């Protein structure tokens, strides 16, 4: 009788020992859920809620011990949050709030604030200025300029001209001041000769930088969008290549042309960059900016192309917003 | 060869009822009225109904005049208190009918109506006679008189668009007209000009300016024309100081086409620019316009100076344009017409006073001496001469 009892006790002891060990290492499944919920774009609120409601102190400790990308062992023997991780998390949680605020804002105020921010941040963000100036309609851009007066008591061209010192100043101020004709009328002859002028500029690019070429600036910053699309076609005919290929060296010019002539290409590029694993904060912010400012119809085909990546990388309420906007785009193409 | 389109089975009772109905209320929406009924009414001289229609138009006219009654002390045109657009349209029609044209009638009507009223008259004329008043006037009149009346009848924004287009399309473009328009109009007015230009010419204003100019002058003009300046009163004195210095350095080095000069002139608000110019004058002891005097062959320098003068003191600028247009042998009718027509409802009175002071002669006297015929009569009416 007694030996059986002993063996039974031994077995029970071993069991509890094992389960203690498991607790000390953190439940691998939950650690994985946590890591997944907090990585990528946006946060998976539902999973986080389920983890948080486990109020058991030991449980949380074991989670901390298991998540080495978020916690580390402090010299005074406690598991400490990684400061960088907190900063990243702040950004990810903020993403949904930014999407909400931006999407409810009046488009004029939105664009005015985006322009101001881009100017403040400096040259890496000047691409946003190009994007806004080139993808808005003439009236929308005008509205943004008016809102800028109200918000900042200056004109946008005043601030751009005063703060941008480099060669891109001319291009950016002119883009933002444009009030392009929006009718369909296009003169093929003019388009042909302007395509030739652009080709000429490319040929002389080693003597004079494209962004400083008068004719290039004139054509890109004053002509109507239908006209520029015709110039794009004519250019392909006479040179065999697309303007965007040839202007590869000048980033702002390239993006100007893309946004004006082939906006779909531009949007696809932004999505692609934002959904990469190594995407930086600016690239992810671009995603929010696009889905809250662009007509949903501009994203036709995007959801199919990026469905897999979105599923992988984007989380929670933010993902719902993204998918919702893209779905509306597939439906009828209008906001 | 009657042109009246009348229904097959007219019923006098029904027509009368229709007109009565249309006359109910404060204003009639003349667009609701059937053309045939109106023409028939007028032809048959149904005096009561005409009177009622006129009264309604009168009321509408005086409503318009009330709204327009901002303190336009400096305008020179003399507008009566009560205006009937219907009667005006009729009078103009009568003036254009038959052989020859009654230019005096045209002057006496159009020369005493402000922009809002002229617009209503055009609408009434279109409704009554199914033709564009402007086209009719173009075909009836000629020469400098026609040009002046044409510009006068257009909406201010449309007018500026036409003036700009004419200036740009010249073989040797009139830069100063483009500069004048971009610098003396308010930001909202300039915007309206750009819209009107697009509607009329299917190109944007900046597009055409850019395509017809080159080099430094292109940079300046395109920038001036594209500006949507902040129109607040705030001034940053520190900024005025630093930008006055920038201008001084550029002028000192004779680097007038310096990017910074164009930047400042084409982006800063008007109030800010005035502060900058004042600061310049205080620092340098002389006005910036004096410093910009140079060879008249340097078209960029001339353009720069024009822009600065337009910002600094537009009335003085216009007085000089007027003075230059009538002095000496020959008259620059384009310039004379342009200034009088575009300023008659704004500040022509002050400009007249400036002229009188400067030249010891009233402007009307010199205009009367240098022009003739209907053109002269029209200009004098716009200058405020009593008939």
TrEMBL record, chain A:
Keywords: Annexin, Calcium, Calcium/phospholipid-binding, Metal-binding, Repeat, Signal. GO terms for biological process: response to stress. It holds the Pfam family Annexin. InterPro entries: Annexin, Annexin_repeat, Annexin_sf. It comes from the Eukaryota. Residues 1-22 form the signal peptide. One of its GO terms (molecular function) is calcium-dependent phospholipid binding. PANTHER family: ANNEXIN, ANNEXIN D4. This is Annexin D4. The gene is LOC18587351.
From TrEMBL, chain B:
Keywords: Annexin, Calcium, Calcium/phospholipid-binding, Metal-binding, Repeat. InterPro entries: Annexin (IPR001464), Annexin_repeat (IPR018502), Annexin_repeat_CS (IPR018252), Annexin_sf (IPR037104), AnnexinD_plant (IPR009118). It holds the Pfam family Annexin. GO terms for biological process: response to cold; response to heat; response to salt stress; response to water deprivation. One of its GO terms (molecular function) is phosphatidylserine binding. Ca(2+) binds at residues 98, 100, 140, 326, 330, 368, 370-371. GO terms for cellular component: cytoplasm; plasma membrane. The keyword Flavoprotein does not apply. A pair of annexin repeats may form one binding site for calcium and phospholipid. Belongs to the annexin family. This is Annexin. It comes from Theobroma cacao. The lineage of its organism: Eukaryota, Viridiplantae, Streptophyta, Embryophyta, Tracheophyta.
């Amino acid at each position: 009788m007694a030996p059986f009892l002993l063996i039974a006790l031994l077995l029970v002891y071993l069991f509890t020992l094992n389960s203690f060990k498991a607790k000390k290492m953190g439940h691998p499944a939950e650690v994985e859920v946590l890591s997944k919920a907090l990585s990528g774009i946006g946060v998976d609120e539902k999973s986080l809620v389920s983890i948080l409601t486990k109020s058991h102190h030991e449980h949380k400790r074991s989670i901390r011990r298991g998540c080495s990308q978020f916690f580390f062992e402090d010299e005074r023997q406690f598991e400490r949050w990684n400061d960088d991780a907190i900063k990243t998390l702040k950004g990810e949680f903020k993403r949904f709030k930014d999407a909400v605020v931006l999407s409810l804002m009046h488009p004029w105020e939105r664009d005015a604030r985006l322009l101001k921010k881009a100017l403040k941040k400096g040259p890496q963000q000047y691409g946003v200025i190009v994007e806004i100036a080139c993808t808005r309609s003439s009236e929308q851009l005008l509205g943004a300029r008016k809102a800028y007066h109200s918000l900042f008591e200056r004109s946008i061209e005043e601030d751009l001209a005063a703060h941008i010192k480099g060669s891109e100043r001319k291009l950016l101020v002119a883009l933002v001041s444009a009030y392009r004709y929006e009718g369909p009328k296009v003169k093929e002859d003019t388009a042909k000769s302007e395509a030739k002028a652009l080709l000429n500029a490319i040929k002389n690019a080693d003597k004079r930088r494209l962004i400083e070429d008068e004719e290039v600036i004139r054509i890109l910053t004053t002509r109507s969008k239908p006209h520029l699309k015709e110039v794009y076609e004519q250019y392909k005919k006479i040179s065999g290549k697309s303007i965007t290929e040839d202007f590869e060296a000048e980033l702002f010019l390239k993006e100007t042309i893309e946004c004006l002539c082939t906006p779909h290409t531009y949007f696809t590029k932004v999505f692609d960059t934002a959904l990469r694993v190594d995407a930086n904060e600016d690239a992810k912010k671009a995603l929010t900016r696009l889905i809250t400012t662009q007509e949903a119809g501009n994203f036709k085909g995007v959801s199919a192309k990026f469905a897999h990546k979105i599923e992988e990388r984007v989380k929670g309420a933010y993902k719902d917003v993204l998918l919702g906007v893209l779905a509306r785009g597939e439906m009828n193409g209008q906001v | 060869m009657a042109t009246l389109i009348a229904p097959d089975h007219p019923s006098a009772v029904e027509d009368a009822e229709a007109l009565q109905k249309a006359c109910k209320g404060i204003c009639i929406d003349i667009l609701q009225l059937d053309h045939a009924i109106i023409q028939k009414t007028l032809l048959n001289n149904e005096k009561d109904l005409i009177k009622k229609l006129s009264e309604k138009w009168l009321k509408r006219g005086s409503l318009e005049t009330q709204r327009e009654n901002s303190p336009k002390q400096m305008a020179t045109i003399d507008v009566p208190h009560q205006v009937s657009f219907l009667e005006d349209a009729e009078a103009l029609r009568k003036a254009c009918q038959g052989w020859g044209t009654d230019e005096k009638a045209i002057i006496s009507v159009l020369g005493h109506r402000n922009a809002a009223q002229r617009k209503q008259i055009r609408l009434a004329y279109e409704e009554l006679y199914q033709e564009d008043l402007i086209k009719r006037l173009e075909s009836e009149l000629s020469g400098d008189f026609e040009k002046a009346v044409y510009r006068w009848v257009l909406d201010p924004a449309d007018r500026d668009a036409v003036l700009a287009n004419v200036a740009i399309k010249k073989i040797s473009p009139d830069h100063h007209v483009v500069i004048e328009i971009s610098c003396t109009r308010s930001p909202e007015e300039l915007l309206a000009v750009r819209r009107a230009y697009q509607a009329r010419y299917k190109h944007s204003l900046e597009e055409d300016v850019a395509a017809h100019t080159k080099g430094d002058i292109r940079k300046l003009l395109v920038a001036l024309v594209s500006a949507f300046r902040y129109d607040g009163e705030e001034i940053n004195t520190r900024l005025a100081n630093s930008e006055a210095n920038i201008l001084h350095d550029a002028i000192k080095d004779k680097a007038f086409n310096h990017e910074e000069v164009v930047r400042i002139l084409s982006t800063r608000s008007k109030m800010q620019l005035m502060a900058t110019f004042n600061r310049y004058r205080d620092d340098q002891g002389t006005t910036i316009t004096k410093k910009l005097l140079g060879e008249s062959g340097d078209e960029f320098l001339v353009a720069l100076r024009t822009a600065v003068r337009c910002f600094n003191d537009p009335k003085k600028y216009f007085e000089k344009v007027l003075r230059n247009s009538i002095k000496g042998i020959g008259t620059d009718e384009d310039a004379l017409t342009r200034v009088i027509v575009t300023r008659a409802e704004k500040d022509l009175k002050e400009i007249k006073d400036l002229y009188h002071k400067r030249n010891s002669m009233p402007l009307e006297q010199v205009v009367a001496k240098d022009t003739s015929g209907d053109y002269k009569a029209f200009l004098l009416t716009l200058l405020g001469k009593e008939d």
